[in-house]
Write a structure and sequence with these properties.
Elements (H helix, E strand, L loop, with lengths): L2 E4 L9 H14 L5 E6 L1 H5 L3 H10 L3 E7 L3 H6 L6 H13 L3 E6 L9 H15 L3 E4 L9 H8 L7 H13 L7 E3 L12 E2 L4 H13 L2 H12 L12 H13 L7 H10 L3
Parallel strand pairs: 1-2, 2-3, 3-4, 4-5, 5-6
Antiparallel strand pairs: 6-7
Helix pairs in contact: 1-3, 5-6, 6-8, 8-9, 10-11, 10-12
């Protein structure tokens, strides 16, 4: 065993003294462990002093995942995140200053049609100020049992589809500057899993698949979206595989997917993976 993950969504809500005791016990009991990781929320970390964060790091917590999702204040207020952009930045910087590895999550689509551009630009600006070790992409999908689904039904929230998601993610990635983070697209809900690489040297490599997808003819975009959302494709190059392409074509035909309904169909398929 080389790693331990402290479960639940907000481990750092635990009092620092108690967390230090837990971590010290873990390290003593399992001396072979190389990494101890936890999830945390920005507002919890922002309340912890720099001194206590250093103590937590010294006790053995060496990676934290924060679900930033967005740093646009309009978006954060709408989804009732309970945090603003400045707090997201303060928390991320505090983790880095303590010498703890940091993963920040960005969620394309969370701003809906109204705040898509703001979601990309404000989130990129916050990430630039934090310089996390990892930026993890998690595309928005809306299950029927959450409040945001009701907002979609009422018209208060207008979700965007894969084309706009790709445009938003492209704006986000093109707006990252002065950092040396690793971008990961390791999730089934992401349209293009090949959007991965190290900044700054691989920035063009990161955005190339998005530009290629957006430059495709509409019928090719539709076929890729069907193949991806049906679990047939994982990357653009899969379109060149005759077997996979044929499978996607049959799926599009069987489900009667057209350019008029592909976004709605894709949204329904994405719910299956949540």
């Amino acid at each position: 065993m080389k790693s331990i993950f402290l479960q639940d969504a907000n481990t750092l809500v635990i009092k620092p003294d108690d967390l230090v005791e837990i971590l010290s016990y873990l390290r003593k009991t399992f001396p072979q462990v190389e990494r101890v990781t936890a999830y945390s929320r920005s507002h919890s970390i922002a309340r912890i002093s720099d001194q206590d964060m250093s103590r937590i790091a010294a006790a053995g917590l060496n990676r934290i995942h924060i679900g930033m999702e967005s740093a646009a204040d309009q978006v954060l207020a709408f989804i009732k995140k309970g945090v603003d952009k400045e707090t997201q930045i303060v928390a991320g910087q505090r983790v880095k200053q303590a010498g703890i590895e940091l993963s920040e999550y960005f969620m394309p689509g969370l701003g809906g049609a109204e705040f898509s551009r703001e979601n990309a630009l404000e989130s990129a600006d916050a990430i630039n100020q934090i310089n996390p070790d990892f930026i993890r992409i998690r595309t928005l999908a809306i299950p029927s049992n959450v409040e945001l689904f009701k907002d979609c039904q009422s018209g208060e929230f207008s979700p965007i589809g894969d084309l706009q998601m790709a445009q938003e993610l492209l704006i986000f990635l093109e707006s990252l500057h002065g950092i040396d983070s690793t971008v990961k697209s390791d999730h089934i809900l992401n349209l293009l899993q090949e959007v991965e690489g190290d900044l700054p040297q691989q920035q063009e490599h990161l955005v190339a698949p998005l530009r290629a997808f957006l430059a495709m003819e509409a019928k090719e975009q539709l076929l890729y979206m069907v193949g991806r959302r049906a679990g047939i494709f994982s990357r653009l190059d899969d379109l060149r595989d005759a077997g996979l392409r044929g499978h996607a074509e049959r799926a599009a035909s069987a489900h009667q997917v057209t350019t008029d309904n592909v976004e709605q169909w894709a949204a329904q398929m994405m719910q299956r993976f949540i």
